[in-house]
Amino acid sequence: MNSFDFLDVLLLQGMLRGLFNLNVPIFTESGVDVIEGAGSFSSPIEIPESIRIALLSNMDEFCRTVRKVDPMEALSFILAERYLRTQSEFYEQTFTKFGIDPLSATILEVGSGYGFFLCYARRILGWNIWGAEPGENEFSGRDEIAAQLLLANAVDCERLVRCTGEALAFDDSSFDVVVSNDVLEHVTSPPKVLEESCRVLKPGGLIMFNIPNYHWIYEGHYNLPWIPSMSKSLARNYVSLFGRDPGFVDTLNFITPASLSEMVRGIDNLQLLQPLEYGCENFLSSRLEAYLSSHAGSASKFSRKLTRSLTTICETQFFKSSTKFLARSTGLYHEMRLVARKVPVENAPEIA
Fold this sequence. Notes:
By secondary structure, the protein is of the alpha/beta class. The chain has twelve helices and eleven strands. The chain has helices at 11-20, 49-67, 71-78, 81-97, 116-124, 142-152, 190-199, 232-240, 257-265, 283-294, 301-314, 317-330; strands at residues 28-29, 32-33, 107-110, 129-133, 160-162, 175-181, 201-212, 218-219, 224-225, 270-272, 335-342. The chain has a seven-stranded mixed sheet with strand order 5-4-3-6-7-11-10, with helices on both faces. Strands 1-2 form a two-stranded antiparallel sheet. The protein has a two-stranded antiparallel ribbon with strand order 8-9. The longest helix has 19 residues, at 49-67.
């Protein structure tokens, strides 16, 4: 389970890079593109130099062979304050809606990756949060880096537990909330992860998962435009055309609104509380704002102007209404937001 494969630096940038193999100038110093991770970045959490080096080393193969971006570019974006806020805002809005206090409620993050959000939520936001991360196979080394990061940020290392989402190392009814951000597409068994998340929830507790929608026109791991609901065999051939590693396709679960809804219906005591496309009209503008904020001092003038223009368009009522209509009628939208409550089996209603 990782912490940075959900990078959506910019849809237009991804299309240009994928379709025309263009490295759109983003990081510039005196008009020259900065490559190979030179320079520094700012983040609300402490990143000692030794951890930064370990992160870049661990991320290198993925960035070079799958996403085709410089590791430092990826790291500077996902550690920026505004990007971390885009993750917490969805949870905070849901907490407010359902009367949950994250400072006292027990929260579990499934798939903590390098520990970025776990550190941010605990140290900066003060949440009462724990994390689960397997640290093996394709995720090898991430739990060790996360433990170092927790230590550097004065967060108790016992708050990160090494386990898979399919076998959470916690007792039944341990948490008030289980959250997860762009993880379910990476696990061995998505239905089992949902079942385990429900098991460790207290009665009345909430599951809040962000999950990429594979019935969409862009794929964030490969940083490419995408054919909605593409098959695995076609996807392998497709990414190969752009010089990307086709083997990574086999590590992904191509989850769609239809398949996710079926998984939820398969768990008797899990009640869906809102449509999966809830809030989709605000997603792109918030990511563009995060991009602009994280690269305010390093983006080219053209990139800043383009991003501001796209943000303005995305914030118009017409764009938002059109996005919501498209999502509801076709299932075409970027991120699915699963919000569900654990209820007694005898009280579980039918999910529309």
